[in-house]
Amino acid sequence: MTDAPTTIEDAILRIETLSKDFGPVRAVDGVSLDIRRNEFFALLGPSGCGKSTLLRMLAGFEMPSSGRILLEGKDISSLKPERRPLNLMFQSYALFPHMSVVRNIAYGLEMERLPRAEVRARVDEIMAVTDLTGFADRKPEQLSGGQKQRVALARALVKRPKVLLLDEPLGALDKKLRERMQLELKRLQHDVGITFIIVTHDQEEALVMADRMAILKDGQLLQCGSPEDVYESPTDRFVANFIGVMNFIEGGIGADGHFTAEGMRLPVPGIAAGPTALAIRPEDVAIDHGGGHGIAGRITDMAYHGLDRVLHVAIDACETPLQVRVPARIEAGHAIGEPIRLSIAPDRCKFFPA
Amino acid sequence: MMGFTRQNAGGRATLIVVFGFLYLPIAVLVGLSFNEAGLPTVWSGFSTKWYGALLGNANILGAAWNTLIVAIFATVISTVLGTLLAIGIETRRRASNGLEALVFAPMVIPDIVLAVALLSFFSRLDVTLGLHTIIISHVIFDLAFVCSIVRARLKHFDYSIVEASRDLGASPWTTFWRITFPVLMPAIVAGALLAFTLSIDEFIIAFFTSGAGRSSITLPMQIYSMIRFGITPEINALATIVMSVSAAALLLSQWLNKDQLR
Amino acid sequence: MSFQATRPNLLAAPAIAWLLAFMVAPCLLILGYAFFERGTWGGVVYTFTLENFERVFDPLYARIFLNSARIAATVTLLAILIAYPAAYAISRAPKSRQPLLLFFAVLPFWSNYLIRTYAWIVLLNREGLINNVLRWGGYEGEPLSMLYSEGAVITGLVYNYLPFVILAIYSSLSRLDMSLIEASRDLGAGPIRTFLRVTLPLTLPGVAAGGVFVFVLSIGNFVTPALLGGGRFQMIGNLVYDQFLTANDWPFGAALGMILIAIMIVLLTLQARATNRAAGTVREAER
Question: Which helix (H) or strand (E) holds A296?
């Protein structure tokens, strides 16, 4: 399943067959990853997939059961958290409640025993970058969610870490603010030129922000690549289902090089025979207006999304209705219960052995 | 909201009656302590002479001094032990019913039973009774109360700030003194103040573990023997002072710990 | 991590050692004493006997036991009847004022027990405030002797433990989801039926916690019966006191103390079970 660990020459962070056991539970299972300098990298997976444990191992809060973590070629696996040139932005923000904004941000620099003037200059600079000027003397309890989030970010960034780790950084914000902050974080990452590794369970967030992403499940790395790679060419059925919306049709590929399921037959040259699931995205299914050769179905539900319209079409080949995404202005005037014919482009299909 | 006004009026009346019941007896005591005549029969004018009389009473001053020593030592010991215990319990991976019961017991055990048990214990071991045995005994329940207050704070404690401090480059030691301790501080001080008032006021256990003779009599013991001799105006004055000290300590404790009520 | 990595047991050890040495060991010692004979001149003779427990059923002592239990039960009932409306009123006060009201309801509880009891002597005695007020009001007869009676003891105990019951019931009420009450009203129940069918059942754990506490502390009380009951009025606490300081019969005193502890353990266990069961029903209801 796992991609062969692709070695990247200019990797800033290298994770080598890292595992973590909690008693009988293997939270992270032999994960290998290379992270490029200055890239925005997302660790994505459902809750309990091990992504947070992986991040905590990078930060130094969990010791790996086996495997190594190399930062710029140096093994940091056994370093204490305070000795690692990585910083973590906590999901809860973890702002010190008894310190003002400015004291929170300066804390990490004070730990480096930097001269007072330098601490001040760097704190002022980062506060300007993160739009916090004017909040210096507020206590965390006097800040809004978005402001707290920026303080947490500033506090980690001011240390100029080689890698910034972000644990669900937008999880606590409401939808509107979250969408704005996605772009803002990406811009900020570009401006400061620091490698970001973000943990999220929100696939949309990962698609929007990340240069590359890794999908984890049950502690294992399923796929790693750019958002487009992962969306367009999922190598795993779980990934295909987890990223975006995917229709699955269970069937089989015969010796004749055709995928067959009830009421449909599709030529698929070059794919191994056997029971197989066909996967197709809703936007790759079209309504077949002429000919009458398409797959027969009946509309069971419709949802209008402005630009698009999603039709749910019941077909004989699968139990769950197929989702079909069509341009709303072109495909107007359909009705629930209406019989319809669908066409599928064979080159857009993915096949996963059942 | 408007519909509830009638109910509010009922609630207010209830509270006035109950607070009256709670505070009237105390108010009477305080009032009488300033009565020239000293007795409830007649109000003969405002006077502080009963307070003056206290200052001239060597027995009372001696008892007050003993009380202070007991309370200070018991508070210091129980604050340290109780705080460590609270952190220990709250950071355990698994809860232990036995431990919970052990820590809860000092708060509910009838004090007369603990008193006779301690007396038996000390005399069985031939320990000379005195202020030190009172201190040892007071630490038992003091530490339980300190522990419960610090635990309440720890329940709302966001452990990720400890990790954040490490992540930002602070050692465990620095983290404790710059993060954990300041955040817990109000609860620790609140616990200490509560322990202090409990020690100042405790009577039965001190009575049983103080031994014979005047040398280790504490204020509550002094008050008890004065009451048994009959009501005197000095008792009212002494009671007023003792209650004021407790109330001040408790107000301070509450004020320090007010964040928790939110 | 530094928090988790510190050794919890090591931190707790000094306090646990203190409690084991100075609370558990002494209690085990008198548990042992309870099964031995007293010496002729006091002290303990290490001969096994069950006589100390048999003596509890001697009519003289059995009467004191029953009396204590009856008084403690009366005190518990009265305290709950007064505390519930007070706690309810506090829980319905504006949110911002609740902490302060609660604090002042509980404040007397933490102040000197002896003095609070003494205050009632000042109020109740023959030359006391209440008799004076009555005389000013035109009352001509003999001054009422209210002190040194069962009523005085009950009043003193209710007065002393009321704050704790208010606190216990309030903490139950404040955890009560207000939308449940609104739902009950919405479904057609009036305020009284809503109280009886929703509010009261859901706050019973608080009532039980407060009640058990008052009962345990009242039945073993020493100061209040001694001061407000006078010498004539005995409860178990006074009996224990006498065995140790006057009668010099430590084994019997120890046996009485152990019975108090047993009562405490039984009641606390029952209360914990009831509370858990109540919490269980709530959890089930939420599923």
Answer: strand A295-304
Of C112, C128, C240, the CB nearest to B201: C112
| Residue indicated by tokens 């009560």 | C176
- B248 within domain boundaries: yes
Residue A89, C-beta contacts closer than 8 angstroms, at least 6 positions apart: A152, A153, A156, A164, A165, A166, A167, A169
Would you state the structure tokens that stand for residue C60, as one six-digit string?
């003289």
> Does residue B53 fall inside a structural domain?
no
- Mean pLDDT over each residue of chain C, to the nearest integer: 86
- Tokens representing residue B256 in the block: 């320090």
Instruction: Find tokens 């010791």 and name the residue.
Output: A63
Answer whether B120 touches C (CB < 8 Å).
yes
- Domain presence at residue C144: yes
Beta carbons of A39 and A209 less than 8 angstroms apart: no
* Helices C250-286 & C25-33 angle (0-180, nearest 10): 120
CB distance from C5 to chain A under 8 Å? no
Domains of chain A are: 11-241 (3.40.50.300), 245-353 (2.40.50.140)
How close B94 comes to chain C (CA, Å)? 11
Q: Are residues B65 and B40 in the same domain?
A: no
Q: Is B196 helix (H, G, I), strand (E, B) or coil?
A: helix
Distance from CA of B9 to the nearest CA of C (A): 10
CB contact (8 A) between residue C8 and residue B39:
no
Give all strands of the β-sheet with A212-217 in edge-to-edge order. A86-89, A163-167, A195-200, A40-44, A212-217, A220-225
In DSSP terms, A259 is beta-bridged to: A253, A266
> Is B52 a domain residue?
no
∠ CA C9-C10-C15, nearest 5°, is 85
Nearest-by-Cβ selection for B158 from A80, A92, A156? A92
Residue with tokens 């006097």: A142
Domain with C172, as residue range(s), is 74-286
Residues 124-163 of B with CB under 8 A from C: 124, 136-137, 139-140, 143, 147, 159, 162-163
pTM listed for this prediction: 0.80
C1 touches A at CB < 8 Å:
yes
**Domain shared by B102 and B33, yes or no:** no
Dist CA A309 CA A330 (whole Å): 10
Query: CA nearest C3 in A: which residue?
Result: A61
pLDDT 10s digits, C204-238 = 989 999 999 999 989 989 989 988 987 667 889 99
Q: Give the residue numbers spanning the domain of B249.
A: 59-261
CA distance C46 to chain B (A): 13
B93-99, long-range: CB < 8 A, 24+ apart: B93/C8, B99/C12, B99/C16
Res. C4: pLDDT tops 70: no
Is B170 in Cβ contact with A92 (below 8 Å)?
no
- B9 within a domain of the structure (yes/no): no
- Number of domains composing chain B: 2
pLDDT band at A106 (very low <50, low <70, confident <90, very high): very high
> Residue B167 sits in a domain of what CATH number?
1.10.3720.10
Is the CB of B170 less than 8 angstroms away from the CB of A97?
no
Helix axes B181-201, C98-110, angle to 10 degrees: 40
Chain C: nearest CA to A212, how far in angstroms? 30
CATH of the domain at C143: 1.10.3720.10
> Which of these, A223, A202, A109, A219, lies nearest to A155 by C-alpha position?
A109
Alpha carbon B29 to its chain's center: 21
Q: Do A97 and B161 touch (CB under 8 A)?
A: yes
With beta carbons under 8 A apart, name residues in chain A contacting B171: 82
The Cα C147–Cα C160 span in angstroms is 16
Asked if the model's pLDDT at residue B117 lies above 80, the reply is: yes
Closest chain B residue to A98, measured at CA:
B183
